[in-house]
Design goal:
Elements lengths: L11 H26 L5 H6 L6 H26 L4 H19 L5 H29 L5 H9 L1 H20 L1 H9 L2 H9 L19 H4 L4 H7 L2 H30 L5 H33 L3 H22 L3 H17 L1 H10 L6 H17 L2 H11 L2 H4 L2 H28 L1
């Protein structure tokens, strides 16, 4: 792990390049999640359209691109730690944008599933490489706030997916919603192509300026090194439980509000989108700021914050799903979302800080693969299948259980690391 030393000051021009890079990557991330979640706003229209999708098919539709994303991520992890990162980013953005627009042309369920699956190729390139690039723009003691800015695009982009998708669907149809979501990404690909690609590890003065020769040639063996990193393993395992719950809630909450709570379709998507924007923006920034503050007190500060916040969110998520009192349900939803989004910046910063600079894209790829194969790949279709077998009201109750599991793993990991450090110091 990196050694704690003072960061080197960089020229003002370099700082401007880093700031510009953060802004561009955050904007691209916003459209990343807009494209990802636009389909959640279209579930009911796809169910009643000529495609006549079942809930199980809708769940698989939302999962299809994640499967490809998960499988492609390890490849881009290796490429991202050794190749020209802006080129890979730009290619990824262009691919996912074209695939999103192509979904609007689908005439069968398989064609729609194939288009959504291709979105995963582009997102694998971007999602794997962008955090490693940001870690070379900014020092470790600022990464909680930097990752908070970057990941604040998740709630905003997700909410825009619900809002834009719901609005365009309501007025122009579900096909046009895919067109509107996909086309702007082609312009963003040009911006990504012009990003600065700094030397790896330039903001980690405790690390050598280049990897050892054997590490530079390791390639796929880096995944074995990460598998032996206990702290990394536990962080990612907790992240999988968290992602299972987030993926299930994101995919099914608009349909839950419409079908179970009787909220009108256009209101359900917009209402949930507004809640996600407000809580996501506030929670993500608060979590990043608090995480950096806690990091000054303990090296496990990021994990403590993520674990405790997610544990507190679990009962609030349960209250959201079982309460028939609208005011109580909405209040619980707002509080749960605030706590869940508070974990976003800290947990991703923990992953970046716990590996070597030349392993960061690989680490993100390993993390992405694991959290998706255990998290939001199975959760949407599982909830859909449970809904088909019983009811959506019962099916969504797996979500708070997943939050409880993820928060427990993170909290246990932080406590065990703190105990280990104290024993080593004694």
């Amino acid at each position: 792990m990196p050694t704690e030393t003072a960061p080197r000051a960089l020229p003002a021009a370099t700082v401007r390049l880093a700031t510009t890079g953060l802004l561009v990557l955050t904007l691209v991330n916003l459209f990343n999640y807009l494209d990802r979640f636009v389909v959640a706003a279209l579930v009911e229209s796809l169910r009643t359209s000529e495609l006549a999708l079942s809930d199980t098919q809708s769940g698989l539709l939302m999962t299809g691109f994640i499967v490809v994303y998960m499988v492609a991520s390890p490849i881009f992890g290796v490429l991202g730690d050794r190749g020209r990162r802006p080129r890979l980013l730009a290619a990824g953005v262009a691919v996912w944008s074209l695939a999103t627009a192509a979904a609007g042309l689908a005439r069968s369920y398989l064609a729609l599933l194939g288009a959504r699956a291709c979105v995963g190729i582009g997102e694998a390139a971007y999602g794997t490489i962008a955090p490693s690039l940001l870690s070379d723009y900014f020092p470790r003691e600022q990464r909680g706030r930097v990752m908070a800015v970057f990941f604040s695009a998740i709630p905003i982009g997700s909410a825009l997916g619900y809002i834009v998708g719901g609005y365009v669907d309501h007025h122009f149809g579900w096909r046009k919603a895919f067109f509107v979501a996909g086309v702007p990404g082609l312009l963003l690909a040009l911006l990504a192509l012009r990003l600065w690609d700094p030397p790896r590890g330039q903001r980690d003065p405790g690390e050598p300026s280049a990897p050892p020769p054997d590490a530079a040639k390791a390639g796929w063996r880096s995944y074995g090194d990460l598998a032996r990193n206990r702290r990394f393993r536990l962080t990612v395992l907790g992240y999988a439980g968290y992602t299972f719950g987030i993926g299930g809630m994101a995919a099914w909450m608009p349909a839950f509000l419409e079908r179970v709570r009787g909220v009108p379709k256009d209101v359900a998507t917009v209402q949930f989108g507004i809640i996600v924007v407000a809580t996501g923006f506030a929670g993500t920034f608060a979590g990043g700021w608090l995480g950096d503050r806690l990091l000054k007190r303990t090296p496990d500060g990021y994990l403590w914050l993520s674990g405790l916040a997610t544990l507190l969110a679990a009962p609030l998520a349960l209250a959201t799903l079982v309460s028939t009192h609208r005011g109580l349900a909405m209040t619980s939803l707002v509080l749960a979302e605030l706590l869940l989004f508070a974990s976003t910046g800290p947990v991703n910063s923990a992953i970046m800080n716990d590996v070597h600079p030349w392993q960061r894209a690989t680490a993100v790829a390993a993390c992405n693969f694991t959290i998706h194969v255990l998290g939001d790949v199975p959760s949407p279709p599982l909830i859909g299948a449970l809904s088909d077998a019983s009811s959506l009201a019962h099916a969504v109750l797996v979500v708070p259980v997943a939050f409880l599991a993820g928060g427990a793993v993170w909290t246990w990991a932080a406590a065990s690391e703190t105990r280990r450090r104290r024993r080593a110091a004694a």
